[in-house]
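Protein modeling request. Please complete all fields; requests missing the sequence field cannot be processed.
Requester role: graduate student
Desired output: 3D structure, token encoding
Chains: 1
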Amino acid sequence: MIKQISCQGTPYEIGFKHGTEAATEIHRSITFYTSMFLIRSKKSWPEVLDVAKVFEKEISSKWPRYHEEMRGIAEGSKRSVEDIVAINCRTEIAFGLFSDGCTSLFWETEGACLLGQNWDWNPVQKPNLIALTITQATLPTIKIITEAGLIGKIGLNSSGVGVCFNAIRAPGLNYNHMPAHLGLRTVLECTSAKEAVETLEKEGMASSAHMLIADGKGEAVGLEFTKDTFARIMKDSRGRVVHSNHLLKEHKGFEAPQWMEDSPQRVERMSALTEKFAEEPSWDEFSDLFKDEDGLPGAICRKAEGYSDAATLFNIVMDLRVPRAVVKMGRPNEDGEVIELGF
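Delivered output (343 residues):
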């Protein structure tokens, strides 16, 4: 069963409880990424930590609350601060060489604001996922599914803001900008999608990725970014935004390599599936979209076989008007643990 941890208090106290209760998962996660960095980007863990030290200096200066929380995680889990910074900046340190393959969808209907995604990654990392609740005195309460030790990931907050994440493999890094997983945390400290998007655009992002940011009032933006650019994908005429793992918008002076051949296919497939609805989908119908296996192994519901070393490790579906979320661990078309996130 996924470990559920509730944290509150000062940034350090939040981090310390996270680190203490998820120490085993954090140690395993660092072991996993030690191997992944060596295989994918030819960096030993000491070399990874050298890069993490550069990020730590920027984070402590520009986002001291996040640095304090990571310091708490480090002390609670008996790891170094650099270890925790390294896994929080894994997207940046790997220069986009980690191939998280994910498919996300927002759909505003008459009665709901539905946001969901499958998160695809190496099955070895599944036992290191945790359900994290963060309560801060002057900010919305946050509920996320995250890799142990990471302060931001996929989920929603008590103000009805939700966020999904799609990795995009692309070169380029800006140490002066915000790492992606800190950006995910920043989104969930906002009270509207508009505030979240504007905040990230003001900060600038350190590497390339996509966040699908939405709220319970129906505002939704697919925010693509590189180290130098942003592009917004707005809802279509039926209130939908679909994304996977490649850039859909033009980014001036920037070309991302086509690194997952199935990424365009997943966008096309999800778009085609949603077009089959004459009426707006129910909660169950929306959830079932993520069970689709067309194009295996690189389907919306991904499987680790053949050319794919990743599988869907969890599915999350949110109604941001409530707000609530249902998380299915593992591939959503198979039996697995189901947990609900609510306020």
